[in-house]
Amino acid sequence: MSTPKTPKKKGKAVNTSSPSAGSDISLDSTPPLYSPHVRQRMNKTVYDSAVLPLVERASALKRNFSELSAASSRSIRAIKLAKGDRKDVTETAIFREHSSLIKAIIESMELEFRAVSQEIETLVDEYEKGDLEITAGQQRAELARLETHVANLQAKLVVARTQKNQLAGELTDRSMAQSVKDEDTSAENMPPWGQAYIDLLLDRYRNPPHATLQLFRRRTPEEQDRFRKAVLASYGAYDKKKGGMAWCCVSGAWCTPSDVVAAHIVPYNVSELHAEHLFGQRDGGHLMRPENGIPMRKVFKEHFDNAEIGFVPVSKDSNDYKIVVLVNTGDIALPEVESIQGNSLQFPNDFRPTRRYMYFSFIMSLLRLRRHRVSGWNKAFREYGMKEMWVTPGPWVRQSTLLTLAHRVGHMSPEETSLFLDSDGESRPEVDESLEELVSDVSQLAKAVQAHSSSFDSSDEDDLDSPLAGKGIPRGGNSLATLPSWFNREGASDDENEGETEDDSDGEDREDDGGDGSEDAGSEDAGSEDAGSE
Q1: What kind and span of H or E run contains 518?
Q2: β-pairing, 504-505 with 309-313?
Q3: Which pLDDT value is given to residue 389?
Q4: Global pTM?
């Protein structure tokens, strides 16, 4: 097979030797770049205008951080020499130095996040226009590699923003314990609070003991069991009289209980802290309520998690939902879902998912499709946009966060966002942009973990170290990329239910009807691992 030629439309191929002519930047100091094969075929004019400036700025900021780290270690050494026995004064001054260092690394990671996100957007746009002559498999592999790095950055940014005082405190403790004579501030011997060490801390702090924000924490079997029981009981989806069968709301049929799971609508890994920011305060929280789950067969949960199917109201004032296929089934083999397009979700009783959760989830699905230009995304946007299918959300979901999600997840311009979200002319209160970005990153990460978890066999559910290599892209065609092995190594759940969905629904102020009844649904059959523990 002949090698595709470089496009000749708008400029020459990109030089693959370095980020810019004459620069001398090591790979360690740059964001991940396109592979040589892709860069040789990337339009140089597009690359130089859209990608290169951000890559160069991110690289420069990384180099500046290394210099700042060395200067900080020299300052700390001087502080310890000058303060002598004044331990309290010394500790406070050193803490400030480390706090400044944490702030600098956050700024560095944020700019790198922007640079790699721009690489992803340019890769997708150029491939979609036909100006990047690479195969579909090469595009998916490149996309998966860059998305992995973005996810890694997101995870570290979440930790750095939420745990910055703890990080600075640990660095301070190490500095206070280190003897002045043991410190070496030479460039060849960086002190333990250099970037590599902080990276290790950020990895470890993803799951600090007793932390409020437990990223990628595996739920205990008891938590999983309680949630499933509550969901099945609330929906009336378990029937002893039918031999312990469980109901699937998607297929509208009684199924073997081991094949039915309680799919989260809003992912569990969003954490209650961020769910409260999105949806407002609610007694008992949001994520483990039965209104945040839907009983369905595992195969449909996988399609739901991968944004291949979604649920929209039958009408704007309806509390019932119909199933919509969001991708082009002609390009992606989805035999299980073609027959359910347009069907209504079949609920066994009057219990319904919360509408705001379903709304949020559907937005996330469309944004992810748009981000990767999955085949059929244009049609999904036209037919199922927010203004077409949903009433104005009002207080359901924080609109400022949705705007941030549209930008960071969907790479949407302000004009596109106003068309996508029902936000025309709406006044915007002052918002904390860093908090909005944090909640956006957590939501996107949680969805990625959820989609990734769905590709597991049940035999993987108890093995946190099982390798995920090769499971990055489910099925053939241009489907959504999921995350590779580092997520699992860092503690991502492999559980069916740990993989959460980013959808919002509404049962608005409904109480947790499933609480008392969950014991009934939790008879041995419904609650056992064989009954489909997620």
Answers
A1: helix 514-521
A2: unpaired
A3: 61
A4: 0.62
- DSSP states along 4-65: PPPP-SSSPBPP-SSSSTT----GGGSPPPPPHHHHHHSBHHHIIIIIHHHHHHHHHHHHHH
Is there a domain that residue 79 lies in? yes
Q: pLDDT, tens digit, for every residue of 104-161?
A: 888 888 898 889 888 988 998 898 888 999 998 888 888 888 888 887 787 778 778 7
- Does residue 22 belong to any structural domain of this protein? no
Looking at the domain assignment, is residue 213 inside a domain?
Answer: no
CA of 3: how far to CAs of 15, 44, 49, 140, 435, in Å? 18, 19, 26, 18, 46
> Are residues 305 and 340 both part of a single domain?
yes
The two beta strands, 260-264 and 293-297, are antiparallel
- Per the CB < 8 A criterion, the answer to whether 131 and 9 are in contact is yes
Domain that holds residue 150: 27-204
219: which DSSP letter?
Answer: P
Residue 148 tokens, joined: 């992995």
- Three-class SS of 383-444: HHCHHHHCCCCCCCCCHHHHHHHHHHCCCCCHHHHHHHCCCCCCCCCCCCHHHHHHHHHHHH
Same domain? For 120 and 151 the reply is yes
- Residue 241 CA to residue 261 CA, distance in Å, equals 20
* Residue stretches of the chain with pLDDT short of 50: 1-28, 184-193, 208-215, 423-429, 454-534
pLDDT score for 26? 31
Structure tokens that stand for 296 in this block: 């369905």
3-state helix, strand, coil in the chain (%, to 5): 55, 5, 40
Q: What is the pLDDT of residues 331-389, one digit of tens each?
A: 556 677 778 888 999 999 999 999 889 988 888 888 888 877 777 777 777 777 655 56
CB count in 10 Å sphere of residue 383: 12
Same domain (yes/no): 175, 275? no
The structural domain count of the chain equals 2
Q: How many CB atoms lie within 10 A of CB 112?
A: 24
Alpha-helical (H) ranges within 84-211 are 87-129, 136-162, 164-177, 195-204
Cα 406 to Cα 295: distance, rounded to the nearest angstrom: 29
Rounded CA-CA distance 532/323 in Å is: 23
**Residue 8: inside a domain:** no
Per-residue tokens: 140: 């998916």
